[in-house]
Amino acid sequence: MNQTFNVQGMTCGHCEKAVTQAVQSLDPQAQVRIDRPAGKVDVQSTQPRDAIAKAIAEEGYEVVG
């Protein structure tokens, strides 16, 4: 299932890698696409939305909405 998250605080490539790794720690098969300027993270995963948002937040980024 495709899910889109609004994520604040991503400022560089390292941030993108951290968010990607956080999502893939839950679902190694997840596909993650990040549009850093727009603050959007698109995730193709079978994991619940709340679990993905929590994993991103635990990396220190704010998931909005």
Task: Tell me what the structure shows.
The model has no long low-confidence stretch (mean pLDDT 97). The longest helix is centred in the first third of the chain and has 14 residues, at 13-26. The protein has helices at 13-26, 49-58, and strands at residues 2-8, 31-35, 40-44, 62-64. The chain has two helices and four strands; from the N terminus they run E-H-E-E-H-E. The two termini are 18 Å apart. Helix content is 37%, strand content 31%. The chain is globular and about 25 Å long. It has 65 residues and is α+β, with helices and mostly antiparallel strands. It has one domain (2-64): Alpha-Beta Plaits, CATH 3.30.70. The protein has a four-stranded antiparallel β-sheet with strand order 2-3-1-4, with helices on one face.
Give the SSE layout:
Blueprint: E1 2-8, H1 13-26, E2 31-35, E3 40-44, H2 49-58, E4 62-64
Antiparallel strand pairs: 1-3, 1-4, 2-3
Helix pairs in contact: 1-2
